[in-house]
Write a structure and sequence with these properties.
alpha/beta, Rossmann fold, two-stranded antiparallel sheet, 11 strands, 28% helix, 24% strand
């Protein structure tokens, strides 16, 4: 497949998945999030990790606030992504969600660490990654700017890369290019996949 065809396939899949996500009611979303929260802390990768990068879920993303609070309560080092204008990510280390503030960035409102020390990607044991779509080979489709793919190329091979998704976001195949970084695992409300 040519790059143009792959990019168009990604745009089409993004549009389809965003439609599916918007179709979830608040009650359905709450119930599905609760199931993910229950399973998350049972995963070996979570139990073993000492330093974790996790995103702050917004909009139709998985609600990660209880996960962040739980990781902090367990005494783990926790970092949240900070989006930069050059399309790179830094990691701001937090000790409390009081250090996280709303920030308008490009076309999104993000929740990011505010005035916190930065974590070196080399110390990460576990990276929790958002996405629009995921497949059974460990591929993910993001929002299209490539923040996570560039970031993951700087993370140690030993760091476990875990996606979080609703079951409706899992598809037979995600179109990928050489730059797309695969995951090690995917957690949904009903299943856990290791790749």
């Amino acid at each position: 497949m040519t790059t143009d065809i792959i990019q168009q396939a990604k745009r089409d899949l993004r549009k389809e998945m965003k439609g599916r996500l918007k179709g979830l009611t608040a009650g359905e979303r709450e119930s599905l999030n609760r199931r993910i929260h229950e399973f998350f802390f049972r995963l070996d990768a979570v139990k073993k990790a000492k330093t974790v990068m996790i995103y702050y879920g917004i909009g139709t993303e998985i609600d990660t606030v209880p996960l962040i609070e739980g990781l902090l309560a367990e005494g783990k080092r926790v970092g949240l992504p900070i989006c930069r204008a050059d399309l790179s990510l830094d990691i701001g280390e937090i000790e409390s969600l009081n250090q996280v503030k709303e920030r308008y960035f490009k076309h999104f409102t993000l929740m990011e660490p505010w005035d916190t020390p930065l974590l070196d990607p080399a110390v990460l044991d576990l990276v929790i990654i958002p996405g629009i779509a995921f497949d059974m080979k460990g591929n993910r489709l993001g929002h299209g700017a490539g923040y996570y793919d560039r970031f993951l190329s700087r993370v140690p091979q030993t760091a476990y890369k875990l996606g979080l998704a609703y079951d409706i976001q899992v598809t037979s195949e995600v179109p990928v290019t050489d730059r797309d970084q695969p995951l090690n695992g995917l957690l949904t409300p009903t299943r856990f996949f290791q790749f």
